[in-house]
Specification:
Oligomer: single chain
Distance between the termini: 14 Å
Protein name: PWWP domain-containing protein
Structural class: alpha+beta
CATH architecture of the domain at 9-166: Roll
Strand order of the largest sheet: 4-3-2-1-5
Number of helices: 18
Largest sheet: 5 strands, antiparallel
Radius of gyration: 25 Å
CATH class of the domain at 9-166: Mainly Beta
Length: about 475
């Protein structure tokens, strides 16, 4: 989950096989010991500190989920005691407003105590033997907890604790505003996206209709029709754009996005609206100023090195750069959807038809997001793209072409997407040579960046002798996502 930031309490789904999701707190790379930073995996991930264990872990974004409650799940587990301790630590953090620094300092204190006490055995690596030693220490702490040695602050009553266990965890520094319709609108990047609106649970206006949805004009949700058969990439992109184009004629003021509407003359001089002239015909499109005022790629000296948002003489605002002529109208609507709803296209992936449409939406939205330098949208596409697993080799290769052909400024999310695509292609390189050798060779001739990056990734795998391991990791991730 790309929107989780340092200090956020989350659930990690891939810590131990056949285990429930494990509570953790997101930390910064600076908090990670040097030897762990040097061994960071190549996939898109975030550093976390596992609660209970107080162990650092690189968690793939697809394995990071929001933490809604501090009540330990009732499912049986061989590490049930550890899991209960981890949830108890999260509850303590909530009650006492402990940030990630509290647990990092506690970990350092424990290390100092361990170093001052002669150890019977030296730990040489993070292996099963080390986990066994951790289990003994944690079990001893749990015994203390069960005998009453671990007390809660005197200001916290049992009634308060029970009530707070039933409420969703209120995460700090996460804000969302409200639109005219009362529906939540996405906060600007400086405030980070609402953490609870993850890819599988994101909604608009609290609607409880069909679980599989595509964003539309009225309440932000339209059934996606999960009975379509396999189609080509161009057909999937066209279908996704058709569902997106319904935003072009919103009813009344239900949408922040306006395009070619009757009162465009009034909006053109309204201080609350920003005009965009899109495509070869330079058609005027309008976005509410409140949606873009704090996004640097609109308002500040951004990646293009320009102050792109300018006041108009008669009032209102305009964003009018020469490269807007190359933006397709239907692609611009993906950006408008994201600014208004925090998502675009299919918002829940539960069927094969949903997966195909979500993949097509990511492919179609990538170009406009990269061209604008929209960091928050690019991060969202990276996270959303993981929901389209299991991937097909042809799909990954097509998406790699889109990413490498887009002339964009360097941004972390672009590098993350490239890493994810290259990992897959390199791990399945033999299959590409067998099935798409001509197309692969042709694209490498046209894109030297792709050729160089793929060669580096292949050499890394061959030198490390871990090509088979890499393939297993990719296939395991695909299986877990498909069965999540």
């Amino acid at each position: 989950m790309a929107t989780a930031g340092p200090g956020d309490y989350v659930l990690i789904s891939s810590f131990i096989p056949d285990m429930p999701q494990w509570p953790a707190v997101v930390v910064t790379e600076g908090d990670i010991p040097v030897h762990l930073r040097e061994g960071r995996p190549q996939i898109y991930n975030k550093p976390v500190l596992l609660m209970g264990h107080l162990k650092f872990h690189w968690a793939p974004v697809g394995d990071i989920h929001p933490l809604y409650d501090t009540q330990c799940p009732q499912e049986e587990s061989r590490d049930r005691a550890k899991l209960e301790r981890a949830y108890a630590d999260v509850l303590d953090a909530w009650i006492n407003d402990w940030q990630a620094s509290h647990w990092i300092n506690l970990r350092k204190q424990n290390q100092e105590i361990n170093q001052s006490t002669p150890a019977k055995e030296q730990r040489r690596s993070m292996n099963e033997h080390e986990d066994e030693l951790y289990a003994r220490a944690i079990q001893a702490s749990l015994d203390d907890l069960q005998t009453g040695k671990r007390a809660r602050p005197p200001s916290v009553t049992p009634e308060d604790t029970a009530a707070k266990r039933r409420r969703p965890l209120e995460l700090p520094r996460l804000h969302s505003s409200t639109s005219e319709t009362g529906s939540p609108s996405r906060s600007p990047p400086k405030r980070r996206i609402d953490f609870h609106n993850n890819l599988r649970d994101i909604g608009f206006g609290g609607s409880s209709r069909s679980r599989s949805r595509t964003l539309g004009p009225d309440d932000g949700t339209v059934d996606s029709g999960g009975n379509s058969t396999a189609v080509t990439l161009s057909q999937r992109i066209r279908k996704t754009k058709e569902s997106s184009s319904s935003l072009r004629q919103p009813k009344g003021h239900q949408s922040h996005f306006r395009a070619q509407i009757n009162d465009s003359d009034d909006l053109a001089t309204d201080e609350g609206w920003v005009e965009f002239r899109i495509g070869p015909e330079r058609k005027p499109y309008f976005l509410r100023y409140e949606l873009i005022q704090e996004r640097s790629y609109f308002t500040g000296t951004n990646a293009h090195g320009l102050h792109c948002l300018l006041p108009k003489e008669g009032g209102g605002w305009i964003f009018d750069r020469p490269w807007l002529v190359d933006i397709k109208e239907e692609d611009f609507q993906f950006l408008a959807q994201f600014l208004e709803n925090g998502d675009f296209g299919v918002i829940r992936v539960e069927t094969d038809a949903d997966r195909e449409l979500a993949y097509a939406g990511c492919a179609a939205a990538w170009h406009v997001a990269a061209t604008f330098g929209a960091e928050d949208m690019l991060e969202h596409i990276v996270a959303k793209f993981t929901s389209t697993m299991p991937w097909e080799e042809k799909e990954i290769f097509v998406f790699a072409k889109i990413v490498y052909r887009t002339d964009a400024v360097p941004l972390p999310a672009i590098d993350m997407m490239k890493d994810m695509l290259l990992d897959f292609i390199a791990a399945h390189y033999d299959n590409y040579l067998k099935n798409d050798a001509t197309e692969l060779a042709e694209f490498q001739r046209h894109s030297h960046d792709f050729q160089r990056d793929l060669l580096k990734r292949r050499l890394y795998m061959l030198d490390a002798g871990n090509e088979d391991d890499a393939r297993e990791v990719v296939e395991e991730e695909a299986y877990k996502q498909a069965n999540a």
